[in-house]
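Changelog note: in this version the structure field was regenerated for every chain. One regenerated record is shown below for reference.
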Amino acid sequence: MEALLLGAGLLLGAYVLVYYNLVKAPPCGGIGSLRGRTAVVTGANSGIGKMTALELARRGARVVLACRSRERGEAAAFDLRQESGNNEVIFMALDLASLASVRAFATAFLSSEPRLDILIHNAGISSCGRTHEPFNLLLRVNHIGPFLLTHLLLPRLKTCAPSRVVVVSSAAHRRGHLDFTRLDRPVVGWRQELRAYADSKLANVLFARELATQLEGTGVTCYAAHPGPVNSELFLRHVPGWLSPLLRPLAWLVLRTPRGGAQTPLYCALQEGIEPLSGRYFANCHVEEVPPAARDDQAAHQLWEASKRLAGLGPGQGAQPDEDPQPADPGPPSSPSGPLPEEPTASEPHPSPQNYLSKVTHRIQVKTEPEP
């Protein structure tokens, strides 16, 4: 009996050490009040994205939840308004798998929102699921979509400088290797999915690095953020049904809550004084060194050029468009109880805001945050 109690005590002590040293996330500090500022958080209908949006709303920011699902996005916006006491939390439709949807979102946002101070790329996927596309779906959702969205919103970010871009990445980038001869090839099978996910997370880190170089001196800074091991929808989404009940208790014990996972992205978005660290990779609310492949400036620039091509940006369209189209009406794009935009179909190459409001795309289920 004594031996059993001793063993239980040792296990409990080991768990406490692991939890407080590896699992529990340090709390985010940073700017206390965000009143008068606007933030966009992609994939903010649940998980890390929702917790990130909640904290921004609590600090007084106007928060746009950019999500694929209208139903879930509207429900999340309602929840966040209730919990934060901030009525300036709204939903706008965005499907990162569709470049048409990305362009339509940017058009609608720029025509209705006078400010953009914080852009947080939280949405992503870890598997293609049952979707079969003629392109690399993981790279499209996790990198190319965010790349295009950043490009289209840069004028507003520059106008509102100092402003920030946060790309939620993952420790999985350490296993990534970018083959520029087959970047956009379709992903088939779970082994290819694992490799493609790691590659897309490496692309996130390199993107933040090159974006910092492109935007030096503009007042717009950018950071790659690793949320840590998080107990989120992504963790169990692709687990067989019979295995899920076994893994849920384990996930609860050894993985962070979504609120904990939101701390490093929030740190990158809000912490004062980290501007000289633009382009760096953060984990547990501090800078972390990355492997050589993730700090290869030549590869970062090559990825930038390849991403422009895959995003449909012409050779003359660089990182910093010269014109910032101001909204005709500086009011909100929609009131919390008013009509909300819907997503365009992927077949529209450059949809108008009218088409944006009238068509819905039904594609993949975009996850709410990346996992390591």
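Spot check on this record: The two ends are 40 Å apart (CA to CA). Residues 37 and 125 are 28 Å apart (CA to CA).
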